[in-house]
Amino acid sequence: MFGSIFNPENKFWQTLDHLADLLILSLLWLLCSLPLVTAGAATTALYDAAAHCLHGPEPIPWKRFVQTFRRELLPASLVTVVWGAVLLMLVYALQMTAAAASAGTSAAWAALIFCLVVMILPVGAACWMFPLLSRFAFRPVDLMLTALRLTLGCLPRTIGLVAIVGISALLVRVLLIPIVILPGAAAWLFTLLLEPVFRRYQPDDTPDEPVSPDEEESETQEEEV
User: Fold this and answer.
1) Where residue 38 falls among pLDDT bands split at 50, 70, 90?
2) What 8-state DSSP symbol labels residue 119?
3) Which of 53, 90, 55 is nearest to 68 (CA)?
4) Do residues 191 and 51 lie in contact, with contact meaning Cβ atoms separated by under 8 Å?
5) Which helix (H) or strand (E) element contains residue 124?
6) What string of DSSP letters covers 15-82?
7) Which helix or strand (DSSP H or E) is residue 100 part of?
8) Is residue 165 a contact partner of residue 127, using CB atoms and an 8 Å limit?
């Protein structure tokens, strides 16, 4: 009995180990997101660590996080600045519409509901971008276009991603304390929705380092020769 309790393979200890990993990854994400401009790189690293360590065989999530953060810092930061500016403009327009709706006109309320629905697209695209960057090599423009295509092409999954972000933000706003573990938990939930899609385009023997589509094509040609 006591042997099974203290067995490291016991479900209880495995659960505690996973919770500790979620806590460490969440704190790393918060720390690396403080400059805001690096939030995209931190999100890329967080998803990568969740996919490879929480779901995969790699045993050290924080090490994977740091490696990915360093590798993707520049491209992710560029995308963060551009897409962040887009989101800020849309949020400003949404606030103006909400202010008009507070006057009580039915047309303004209809416009507000329409804007809220439309906001699913840019927010959903942001949810796709950084997990994509963790798995594939993209130029910034190509990354944003691919994310938009997947946002529309996998709309039910996109709605699920936006719901995870929205619920997480609400919990943090109301309770605050979950912020120390919610980023890691949200990333784990993201992997459940995104990994089945990514596996369609990435074979199981793909190396850990992201490979651009051009490099994949050249490698295929070399193998054929």
Assistant:
1) very high
2) T
3) 53
4) yes
5) helix 120-135
6) HHHHHHHHHHHHHHHHHHHTTSTTHHHHHHHHHHHIIIIISSS-S-HHHHHHHHHHHHHHHHHHHHHH
7) helix 61-101
8) yes
Q: Is the dihedral of CA 86, 170, 165, 81 positive or negative?
A: positive
Nearest residue to 193 (alpha-carbon basis) of 131, 116, 140: 131
- Please provide the DSSP assignment of 161-220 as one string: HHHHHHHHHHHHHHHSGGGGTHHHHHHHHHHHHHHHHHHHHS-TT--SS---HHHHHHHH
Cβ neighbours, 10 Å, residue 57: 6
Residue closest to 46 by CA, chosen among 182, 150, 202, 199: 182
Answer whether 30's CB lies under 8 Å from 179's CB.
yes
Sequence letter at residue 114: F
Spatial distance between the Cα atoms of 154 and 121, rounded to a whole number of angstroms: 11
Distance CA 164, CA 169 (A): 9
pLDDT beyond 70 at 18: yes
- pLDDT reported for residue 145: 93
pLDDT at 83 over 70: yes
Got the DSSP string for 150-161?
A: HHHHTHHHHHHH
In angstroms, what CA-CA distances link 190 with 7, 44, 137, 169, 224?
31, 12, 19, 15, 36
Helix axes 61-101, 39-49, angle to 10 degrees: 130
